[in-house]
Amino acid sequence: MKVYSLSIVYAPTSSPSVILSSASDLSSFSFYQRGSVGEFLTFFSKTVAERTAQGQRQSVQENSYVAHAYNRGGAEQLAAIIITDQEYPVRPAFSLLTKILDDFTAKVPQSSYSNPGSINFPDVQTYLTKYQDPRQADAIMRVQQELDETKIVLHKTIESVLQRGEKLDNLVERSNALSAQSKMFYKTAKKQNSCCVIM
């Protein structure tokens, strides 16, 4: 699971979209590919933001990349885009988009949208880093993972109890067989000893 890019985009319906703040993690690409991949991620983010209707969420797949988009619309006309690999879960991606848009609108005045270079929003990099592992960032996924681990432990415990039960059954059968053998031994010994009794 990998997050490649996280962007906040000003997406008015009447004009082209503009990226207001973004962060990317291109460490999985070679040095020579990073420039091209970065340009692709920017283009992909802007295109998906422009083609997501206001008030809508959507996921768009292109090769091995998936762009999850949330266009909040409204007075701010903001959209958030996260580009991940195919394995990244959808629910944490959309919860991140909602959270980052809430933080952005709370910390950045709408008047600065016309000058994206003046916007300082370092939280986008923090979110990108934090959500690389969605299980750690998302409470519901963390609880689900703990439940899955507990279920595995319980299955192992039940299996070991069943194995113990099978072993106990084997011991009972062996003790019954031993008991029968010991009775036979006693009878045989008694017969043997009866012929040699001295009076």
Task: Write the H/E string, N to C.
Answer: EEHEEEHHHH
Q: Estimate the strand proportion.
A: 15-25%
Strand order, sheet with most strands: 2-1-5-4-3
**Mean of all residue-level pLDDT scores:** 80
Indicate the low-confidence ranges by residue numbers: none
Dominant shape: rod-shaped
The helix tally amounts to 5
Helix content: 40-55%
Structural class: alpha+beta
Major β-sheet annotation: 5 strands, antiparallel
N-to-C span: 92 Å
* Oligomeric assembly: single chain
Number of strands: 5
Indicate the radius of gyration in whole angstroms. 34 Å
Give a written overview of the molecule.
- The protein is α+β, with helices and mostly antiparallel strands.
- The protein is built from five helices and five strands, in the order ββαβββαααα.
- The protein starts with a strand and ends in a 5-residue tail after the last helix.
A few lines on this structure:
This protein is α+β, with helices and mostly antiparallel strands and 199 residues long.
Features:
alpha+beta, rod-shaped, 199 residues
Helix and strand arrangement:
Elements: E1 3-10, E2 18-24, H1 34-50, E3 56-62, E4 65-73, E5 78-85, H2 90-107, H3 123-130, H4 134-137, H5 139-194
Antiparallel strand pairs: 1-2, 1-5, 3-4, 4-5
